[in-house]
Design brief:
alpha/beta; Dna Ligase, domain 1; Nucleotidyltransferase, domain 5; six-stranded mixed β-sheet; five-stranded mixed β-sheet; globular
Length: 422
Amino acid sequence: MGRNAGEDIIAGLDLGSTAIRMVVGQMLEQGGSEGLHILGMVEVPSEGIHKGVITSIEDAVSSTSACLEKIERAVGLPIEHVWVGVNGHHVLTDISQGVVAISHPNGEITEDDVERVVDAARTVATPMNYEILHVIPRYFSVDGGSPVKDPVSMSGVRLEVDTHIIQGSSGHIKNLTKTVYRTGSDIDDLVLSILAASEVVVSERARDMGCVIIDIGGSTTSMIVIEDGDVIHTAFIPIGSEHITQDIAIGLKTSIDVAERLKIFGGTCVTKGLTKRDVMNLSEFGAQADEEISRKLLAQIIEARVEEILEKVGAELKSVGRAGVLPAGAVFVGGGSKLHGLIDLAKRELRLPAALGYPLNITSVTEKINDVSFATAIGLVKWGADIQADMPSGKWHTIMSQLNASKTVATNVRKWMKSLLP
């Protein structure tokens, strides 16, 4: 695993459909223990990326290079290695089981046995042109007994594991890695974006009780359900905040740019309390001519689309038997989560507690740390910091499996890139 020049710092790169965001952090001594400190956070408009997929490598390289230059100026150090988020409708998830015989003569389970059983689970047949990003153990069992979290030092003759397999399109991964490599940076690893975001916005207690993290991006909405500390479901919905902007532009017969400003600065998901007499002038939002529009009509347009997103989230929760029964509720991240009234609407539609997802136990000198748009990029930094610090036994099996799975992706990518060189 690489290190950035000059300092032992970690960089996270989130290539979104509307913006490319990058965060740089460092593990520092704080009150007798190490903690993650964010050194810099930047974003630039995204080009060449649509619905989480690279559509123009040249444009994507240009935008990514601009973001990289901006963060290097902000932190005063060259960034040579980055942790990169993977997102989009091309990501597939599956459940796989692995079984191995315990190798030690006295039947005691070792970390090597755990690694072997996770590798066995990864032998699942993947769809054509797909490769595995993560193999995340859900639970283990010894000799067919009750599920256990950590089987090391237990005794038996057979070890089984139930895992969550996350796969990405080989073509998209190659385009993504080519984009990053052409900026002059190396890739420490590829991480599922919503999985990275979940690492920083919910506490261990919330992960145990059960929660859903929802990332409303520009073109897509992704979600991950966590219970008993394990990932039990992930899903991707092909609707995002850009669809809200398009609805406003069509409904109010105005330009996309004006519609975007209306959404950000004058929009709300809640129509309660608004009347037809509440109006605003489009000229205040960039329109060339004076034109009054109803605030209530604007709210109705936004509410309809957000309700659709939440209905699809609710359907995914229902598919895994978690609709309305996650005690730690819904946590929202992503640029689309900034919509006024979203939390109130989510509580009503999902029948769950709801809140915006702010980073926990992370320090920074910048106020951007509380911008929910940066949750994925911050999560990527946290992911890299945890792996570099070699997490203690409480999470060792998850981190171990992440390392094993991601080594496969990173190694294949590097071999593929080298094969292109003259």
